[in-house]
Design a protein that fits this description.
Pfam families: DUF2810. Keywords: Coiled coil. InterPro entries: DUF2810 (IPR021230). With about 120 residues, the chain is mainly α. The protein has two domains: about 70 residues; about 50 residues, Uncharacterised protein PF10928, DUF2810 (Ribosomal Protein S8, Chain: A, domain 1, 2-Layer Sandwich). It has five helices and three strands; from the N terminus they run H-H-E-H-H-E-H-E. Strands 1-3-2 form a three-stranded antiparallel sheet, with no helix packed on it. The protein is elongated and about 65 Å long. The two termini are about 35 Å apart.
């Protein structure tokens, strides 16, 4: 299971624990309340760990892409025919500003990174 799926599963589990905690608090069952508080704390800690790991991976990937010697913003025509562009430029990596990688890198336009000028 990749990080994104694992984060999603943990967030679902956290939501379930919070709903069960609210129900236990309404009933006044202190033993169950304490159990769910411990479980919520453990899941929250695991989520924070996974988010940190995901951030490190994105940072590493962004650094590798930024180290490529040539980059430039792509024109609308190039964006429209991305298949043709990728076939003509060997090793082209396209970064969109709305993706997690694009936000991490601080890209404001759709940008292509490659080893050779294109």
């Amino acid at each position: 299971m990749n990080l994104k799926q694992e984060l999603h599963a943990l967030n679902d589990k956290l939501d379930k624990f919070r709903r069960k905690l609210a129900a236990a608090e309404q009933r006044g069952d202190q033993a169950i309340v304490m159990q769910f508080k411990r479980e919520i704390a453990a899941v929250t800690k695991k989520i924070a760990s996974l988010k940190g790991q995901q951030s490190r991976q994105l940072n590493k990937q962004g650094g590798e892409i930024k180290n490529l010697p040539f980059n430039r913003a792509l024109t609308k025509a190039e964006q429209a025919d991305m298949g043709k562009l990728k076939k003509s430029v060997k090793g082209l990596v396209v970064v969109h500003p709305m993706t997690a990688l694009g936000r991490e890198m601080g890209v404001t336009q759709v940008t292509g990174f490659a080893k050779a000028k294109f």
